[in-house]
Amino acid sequence: MLVKYWMRTDIPKVGKGTKIREVKEECEKSQVLIVVDEDGKFVGFVDCGNLPDDDGLNIDEFVISKDCYLKEDDHIEHAALLLVETGERFLPVLDSDGKPVGTIGTYDILDALIHLTAFEERGVKVFMTMKDRPGQLKKVVDLFYVNGINILSVLTHKKEGMEAREVAIKVDCSDMKRLKKLMDDAGIEYDYMTMEEGLWNNDN
At 143, which helix (H) or strand (E)? Predict the structure, then answer.
């Protein structure tokens, strides 16, 4: 999932040397301002929440480092990591010419996560512990395919201190009893299942 599909593009841009009094109106609409040079290239960004009451000051004094930015084709995971490392609420997104095209913030990352996990869709999530080696998912995926069950999301993470991974597979199924029987009959072990109602019904 790329940053360009989740970034916001309505963030105000202001020029270097702008006085705080000149950006008050923009700050009422947006929590962050992007600062550009005379060629429209990225200089840095300003968090409106950090601006002082002295509106005669120059915003250049409050510009956050130009090294803190993302590219349009960066992955959303990289954006999340950079937000954590910098402690910033927003980061600007630049195009290949170094010009700002948007921003991405914590809320946007959470929105992407909701879609990445298919949390907004109704279905059953199956949790399993599998050996950390190739081919472990094949039997499960084949079972779902043969029985016409659509996979909505697959997430894994390595279990600490073990040569195993916890796997969470969400499927488009409203009958958890049927799903349990299918997996039991196929001899596929799982830790537990949960029903997630989602934000709307799939009606399947």
Answer: helix 138-146
Look over the chain and give the mean of its residue pLDDT values, rounded to a whole number. Answer: 89
Residue 198 in tokens: 């989602």
Residue 26 CA to residue 30 CA, distance in Å, equals 6
**Domains, the chain:** 3-114 (3.10.580.10), 118-196 (3.30.70.260)
161: its two tokens? 């201190």
**184 CA to centre of own chain:** 34
Which band of pLDDT confidence, cut at 50, 70 and 90, is reported for residue 188?
very high
DSSP 28-83: HH-SEEEEE-TTS-EEEEEEGGG--S-TTSBGGGG-B-TT--EETTSBHHHHHHHH
pLDDT in tens, 131-172: 998 999 999 999 999 999 999 999 999 988 788 999 999 999
